[in-house]
Amino acid sequence: MTVRPLLDRIHVRPAADRRLSPGGIVLPEIRRERMKTGHQVPGEEKTREGVVTAAGPRAGDVQIGDRILFYGHVGFPAVIDGEELLVMKNEDVLGVFDG
Q1: In angstroms, rounded to a whole number, what is the distance separating the alpha carbons of residues 52 and 85?
Q2: Which of 24, 74, 75, 89 is 20 to 30 A off residue 13, Cα-Cα?
C-alpha cells in the first residue's frame, strides 16, 4: 500500500548511521548513538541528512530524490511500504544539497 504525503509533508529516508570511525575502526552501538551522521550547527543542534522519497503538493522547492539537510529532532518515524522513513514538514528542511 502506498501512502501519499499531504500538503507540505514529505517522506525522507534518513542517511544510515556510520558503523566505522573516519579511521576505519568499528564503533560499538553506544558510540554510534552519540555520533549521528551530520554536522554541528550553532545552538548544539545536530543535523542529519536524508533523501526525499515522496513530496506533497505544497512541498515547495523540495522534490523526490533530493538529498536534504534537516534538524535531527524533527520528523515522525513511520514504516511505509516496509521501509523506515521520517514524515516531516517542508519547513523542517534546512537545505538541499547540490548535485
Answers
A1: 9
A2: 24
Pairing of strands 9-14, 47-55: antiparallel
CA–CA distance, 50 with 15 (Å, rounded to integer): 5
Contact 95, 67 (CB under 8 A): no
For residue 94, which of 64, 63, 72 has the smallest C-alpha distance? 72
pTM assigned to the model: 0.69
CA–CA gap between residue 81 and residue 31 (Å, rounded):
30
Distances (CA, A) of 20 to 14, 24, 27, 30, 84: 17, 5, 6, 13, 22
- Domains defined for the chain, CATH in brackets: 9-96 (2.30.33.40)
